[in-house]
Write a structure and sequence with these properties.
Blueprint lengths: L1 H8 L1 H6 L5 E3 H6 L4 H6 L8 E4 L2 E3 L7 H12 L4 E3 H7 L13 E6 L10 E6 L6 E3 L2 E3 L2 H9 L5 H14 L4 H10 L6 H10 L5 H10 L8 E2 L3 E3 L4 E3 L3 E3 L4 E5 L9 H16 L3 E4 L1 H6 L1 H16 L6 E3 L4
Parallel strand pairs: 5-6, 13-14
Antiparallel strand pairs: 1-3, 2-3, 4-5, 7-8, 9-12, 10-11, 10-15, 12-13
Helix pairs in contact: 6-7, 7-8, 7-9, 8-10, 9-10
């Protein structure tokens, strides 16, 4: 009783034993507060809140994202690390480009036997990676975290969105992601493996998406990735899509996709060359391919009609793909 009263009178001492106000019940017992007292404080109307089995929060407000993550790691024990959506988010991928979920996915050493519960999915693995630590939270490396997200997706569109975000924001490469998928369990990998194998043979994921979308056009591009030269033989550009009948170019590029902002200066130079050669060009943001496909198709159809109504620029191709 004296010890318990001491903690009641000095709650700041108890918080010092916690991580952001989250603590294991066993740690409370070591501090002199028996488990019955701890759980009684977590009853409706009590001062504390139970977050997970054996883990409580030293106040009864809704937990923050960090407190939920802390509770999950305390529950899973030594060697646990966050993977999946939460790991991706904490390593810079945008929340809007990730599947919506309130669950936390954790990896633990294979020899440990901890069950999934409440908002925590626990996965035992023989391939436990060295974690990346951000703000004291151990996170599965981004390639592993991304593939752990992909294994739980079931449609091309969502897989494409996550993959583009991982490569664009996370600086992963298709080869790195494909290697990670190949090295792990094959369960749930059919869609991302197919997409990544396609992307290793084209210049970008956005182009792969554009090719699928353009098949819905009345007049799809006649060529992809062809070198265009003007009448004097000077190099103009290598557009993503090209309509040779009317001399129309389609480019999918922006800050949003390119890894370096220096690409923007090259884009301006390229557009100047297009203008000097009299070539109309349609530029599409990668996000438009996903979020406004109908608008992209309408813009391309209108551009083709306008190009058809004017004389074709005096340009020619030097490589047909």
């Amino acid at each position: 009783m004296p010890k318990r009263g001491r903690w009641e009178l000095h709650p700041e001492l108890l918080r010092e034993r916690s991580r952001d106000g989250v603590v294991r019940v066993t740690d409370l017992e070591a501090a002199g507060i028996d488990s019955k007292t701890a759980y009684r404080k977590c009853l409706p109307g009590g001062q504390w809140r139970r977050l997970l089995p054996g883990v409580v929060q030293l106040h009864n407000h809704d937990p923050t994202t960090d407190q939920r993550a802390t509770a999950a790691l305390l529950y899973a024990g030594a060697g646990a690390q966050i993977t999946g959506v939460e790991s991706c988010r904490r390593q810079g991928m945008r929340q809007a480009q990730l599947p919506a979920t309130h669950d936390l996915h954790l990896l633990i050493p294979h020899e440990r036997k901890i069950r999934s519960t409440d908002f925590v999915t626990v996965e035992r693995t023989l391939r436990l990676p060295t974690p990346t630590v951000r703000n004291e939270f151990p996170l599965a490396p981004l390639t592993r975290a991304t593939t752990d997200v992909l294994r739980r997706l079931y449609d091309d569109e969502t897989c494409t969105q996550v993959l583009i975000e991982a490569i664009q924001r996370g600086r992963c490469t298709p080869e790195m992601l494909l290697r990670e998928l190949n090295n792990g369990s094959q369960r749930g990998t059919a869609i991302p493996r197919r997409l990544l194998m396609e992307w290793t043979t084209v210049r970008s994921m956005a182009e792969a998406h554009a090719k699928r979308l353009s098949s819905r056009l009345v007049n799809p591009p006649s060529h992809w990735n062809v070198d265009v030269h003007d009448a004097a033989g000077r190099y103009v550009a290598c557009p993503d899509g090209w309509w040779d009948d009317v001399g129309l170019a389609w480019e999918i590029d922006s800050f949003e996709f390119h890894f370096a902002r220096g690409d923007y200066a090259r884009t301006l130079d390229r557009n100047t060359r297009y203008a000097a050669a009299g070539i109309p060009v349609v530029q599409t943001l990668p996000s438009e391919l996903t979020h406004n496909p109908a608008g992209v198709l309408a813009k391309l159809e209108a551009a083709h009609l306008a190009a058809k109504a004017r004389p074709r620029p005096a340009v020619h191709l030097t490589r047909v793909a």
